[in-house]
# Entry
Amino acid sequence: MRDRKTIAYARVSSSDQKADLERQKKVLEMYCASHGWKFELITDLGSGMNYYKKGLKKLLNAILDGNIGRLVITHKDRLLRFGAELVFALCEAKEVEVVIINSGNEGKLEEELAKDVLEIITVFSARLYGSRSRKNQKLLDGIKQVVDDVAGT
# Structure
């Protein structure tokens, strides 16, 4: 049987989160190295609701081709905001071990739900009004304030 590689996958939603992407990469590199795994790092920049990201497509193709033995991510939502379970089912079918480094460190339910709602509203409002419109930005600023208020309580 051929060697199946370990893939470490990191994603952030926007370019202003590049510092978080670098942090994820370091965590993944240290984790994989500490276990003695040779690995390939795949990174993406884009919404967790976008299923057409270059890195995600590369990851899914490698899983389907049987080239991956292990997938390592920092948090479940770094893979996809919605639909990660489908990817995990695919991994199970292809005998790919999934390692979620911070699976026990998820935020409060209310905070996670607020983030999900914000993501959905962002996607749909961008489609309706255009992502650069003043009206859309005002709406998003208001929603972000509500999310921050919920997260702070």
About this structure: The beta strands are 5-12, 39-45, 68-73, 97-100. The radius of gyration is 17 Å. The CA atoms of residues 113 and 147 lie 9 Å apart.
